[in-house]
Amino acid sequence: MNKLLFITVLVALLAHNAESFRVSRQAEDTEGTMAKFTDSVKAYYSGAVNTASEYLEKIKGLKLEEKAKNLYTETTNVVTTYAGIMQDQIYHSMYKN
């Protein structure tokens, strides 16, 4: 009889421990799922930010801003020169004849 009582108590304790373990494990899974979702959203966001930063660095590496300034300066110099030549031609055609 004592053996039967001991085995019954032992099985009850094991069942109780297994039941409490299962409940806490389900709660961990719920938190784990939310944490995984949050982590994946953060990872996608940081990946997008890093990609955009890399593109900006590549654009700065090409020095497009400096090239645009140089192109503007050269174009204004050429236009100013040819406008001066045109002005001289018009002046000489009107007043020299």
TrEMBL record:
Record bears the keyword Hydrolase: no
Keywords: Chylomicron, HDL, LDL, Lipid degradation, Lipid metabolism, Lipid transport, Secreted, Signal, Transport, VLDL
Record-level GO cellular component terms: chylomicron; high-density lipoprotein particle; low-density lipoprotein particle; very-low-density lipoprotein particle
Gene3D superfamilies found in the cross-reference section: Apolipoprotein C-II
Described function: Component of chylomicrons, very low-density lipoproteins (VLDL), low-density lipoproteins (LDL), and high-density lipoproteins (HDL) in plasma. Plays an important role in lipoprotein metabolism as an activator of lipoprotein lipase.
Predominant location category: secreted
Family recorded in the similarity comment: Belongs to the apolipoprotein C2 family.
Signal peptide bounds: 1-20
Entry keyword annotation includes Mitochondrion: no
Superkingdom of the organism of origin: Eukaryota
Molecular function terms, GO-annotated: phospholipase activator activity; phospholipase binding
InterPro entries xrefs: Apo-CII, ApoC-II_dom_sf
Location in the cell: Secreted
One example of a Gene Ontology biological process annotation: lipid catabolic process
Organism: Champsocephalus esox
Pfam families per record: Apo-CII
Protein name: Apolipoprotein C-II
